[in-house]
Amino acid sequence: MNPVSYVTVDVFTETRFAGNPLAVIPDARGLSDEAMQAIATEFNYSEVTFVLPPEDPANTAGVRIFTPTAEVPFAGHPNVGTAYVLGRQPEIFGRASGDTLRFEERAGLVEVSLIRDGGEVVGATIRAPRPLELGDTVTAETIAACASIDPAKVVTTRHAPIIASVGLAFAVAELDSLEALAAARPNVSVFADAASLHPRSGGDFSLFLYVRPVERPWSLRARMFAPLDNVIEDPATGSASAALAAYLATLAPEQNTDIHITIEQGVEMGRRSVIELDVNKQDGIITKVDISGRCVGVMRGSLSL
């Protein structure tokens, strides 16, 4: 049996056993695609990352991201957590890595800056690899049926539910209250119907629901469901948060602005997460979306293949 080392961390939190758990394989050389998928399925976390030498030596590493059922081109918490692991392990494939990392991924090159506290790596900031892309609008009735709630709870005054992506596609929709958000329960069969109606959603129709308080419009609360990807609920979803932040900034009346957005997620699961986002808008165009979060280590071990 060949041992494969792994590290697990909780991402978008400073509290162990909160946030979103992530498994990182710091050296995935020699693993086949099938082995990577089998490992991700075994962990059954929302994602597992596999770190490989970069194709371009100017970059830090190649990073592949697998859910329990498929490889995905980009995701937020896997990048933050992987950067944290590599930042606390100063040698990667025999060379030192500084505070600026560059990951080669299917979605493109992902730039990462380590966050330090007293010199110690405590988290990371990543930049979304792609500009905001908008797909189909989705009816309030479809959103409500997916979440098992009353369609009247879906807010459409600011925007219709819509497919949005900065590297990975999500249906994003606003709800009218925290009570409605707490009541949401995914209906898997309806998700399958929604995916067939909206093939540009990426084929799995991941749903990101949020509540936006009037008194604090840039402090949101959210939940994310992706049952077709074997993720009934995700406690923190950086890629969805980034897509939503970019879209809301697009809707803001200012043509030139910097917006800081905080998204709290995972509360209903008992795994509170805090995702910080910084969006820059110039001449009405989103020029950057940065996703930041803290991390805490949980486990180290090895897998037998």
UniProtKB/TrEMBL annotation:
SUPFAM superfamilies: Diaminopimelate epimerase-like. Gene3D superfamilies: Diaminopimelate Epimerase, Chain A, domain 1 (3.10.310.10). InterPro entries: Phenazine_PhzF-like (IPR003719). Coiled coil: none annotated. GO terms for cellular component: cytoplasm. Pfam families: PhzC-PhzF (PF02567). One of its GO terms (molecular function) is isomerase activity. The active site is at 47. Belongs to the PhzF family. PANTHER family: ANTISENSE-ENHANCING SEQUENCE 1, PHENAZINE BIOSYNTHESIS PROTEIN. This is PhzF family phenazine biosynthesis protein. It comes from Ferirhizobium litorale.
